[in-house]
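Researcher: Please predict.
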Amino acid sequence: MSKKTVGLKARSTLARTGFKRRERVRLPSPPPRPATRRAVMADCSSPGLKLDKTEPQRNAHLLAMARGMPCLLRTRQCNGDRSTTVAAHSNLLIHGKGRGRKAEDCYSVWACARCHTWLDSSYDATLDDKEIAFLVAHLEQVEIWKAIVASPKASPKDRAAAKWALDTLNALAAARNPSEEKKA
């Protein structure tokens, strides 16, 4: 704060004005009003009523298979660096994502570090853009898993992990019997 000297006294340039501040009067909060409509509430008071959360299905080898693979998200920020590729999980509620809970491993796609960051915390894309990008990449991921299962050159661990993902998604049965898929 700058000060001007007036005689021997120092005076602030922000001198007080002659106006007084108004006193703020706090009004008492209004009494609670009775509810105008009835709400239906679950009775959670009984100790025997506990909803069990399902454990998310995990497969460590499926996630490890992403190392060194090409990025499937391919956003504008994609660096194409295979050394940074990891499995990026879905952020959609329909895939099991929730507060403090990651989606199941079968709902993951191979993504480079930049695309993974874009999917999880980007502010320059809408949620719809992210959802579409993930679903398109996941379709491609499922096709890659099908190719791994069918390939005799793939390692047994890779085939087992890809088969696990397809079985979890029920994608293998639909690929074998496309006529049953049309009936459903």
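Model: Helices lie at 60-64, 113-121, 127-150, 156-169, 171-176, 178-183.
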